Amino acid sequence: MLKSVKKYSISDYVKNQSGIVDDISVDWGNQDEFKKKYYAFTDLLYRPQDGLLYCGHTNFGNDLLHTFNLQTKEFKSLDYHNFAEPLEIKIHRALELGNDGRIYGATSCLHAPDKRLQGPGGKIFRYTPETAQFECLCIPKEHDYIQTISMDCEREMIYGFTYPVFDFFAYSIKENKVVYRQFMDSISHISAIDDDGGYWGTWSYNHWFFRYDPAENNVEFFKHGFPEKGGNMMYRNAGPIDCMLNGKDGFMYVTTDLGSLYRLNPKNAEIEFLGRPFASSRLPGLIMDETTGLFYLSGGDDNNCQIASYNRQTGCFKNLGIITDSETGTECFRTHDIVKINNTIYVGETDNPNRTDYLWECKL
Fold it and tell me: 80-111: per-residue pLDDT in tens?
């Protein structure tokens, strides 16, 4: 169970008009105070080499990456705004740690379609913590930005989806080029890679499965998806995949925007419903404890966010508690990402309609 919950913020900013940022971004994007002080925690990545938690954000001032010191509880900006162009305002489920110890990421956007041709497109970037240097590796598609990436360190590949036009792409770090790109008409919140290097996602408005094979540089398209009709809950035509991971037992595990957990067999794309940890929708947080094999999940919505564990051996969920600050009673509005460091779970909050978002420290 959750022993204690504490919130941390980069700024204590309260909006003077309520609303979800995705919906009000056109009107609010040029307001100075909003640009400087509003942060959403859209990505979390722990780097054991320096013991820091790297936090990716939505921020209209292009301040997209901070570290959080687990000992001092202090945030430090990595000054991405000095490297950014104006339309990069998100790192959205797009931070990965390479085998070389460097951080790989990608940038997304929130501008309206009338500005689409003004943007060069989202970057795949690399950050070297020891030198504090950013470098642009690639813009996979001109004018479109990058909503999510997954990295195969063994094969030196980065996969992702572009936004607002939903192209899947495969980028080779070794060759420094996009080796495959295809319009999919669907998009995962974040996907994963199976034991044979295959990347899984969804395609078409039906949100059927596909698998990209790097050996063949080709995609296998399946004609089925989830039995429940998710999609459109995150944003228009966003597919049901809220999060996916490789369970290191031969199977892929997938959470959906309707709050369900599935097991996917990568040999034949068959899926098995495992259950729902909460009654509410959205389940964007899914991680595996490498020591115990337990899964930890975060989800819920509209100030009803919770954490649960799932035991694959027993098939049982355990609700660990609601994400509410132990001292102030402040509630987490919507979860977006989750990491576990020792006996503490960190949850990134996003989309609060009234204030800046928090990083939540949940001690087990």
Answer: 999 999 999 999 999 999 999 999 999 999 99
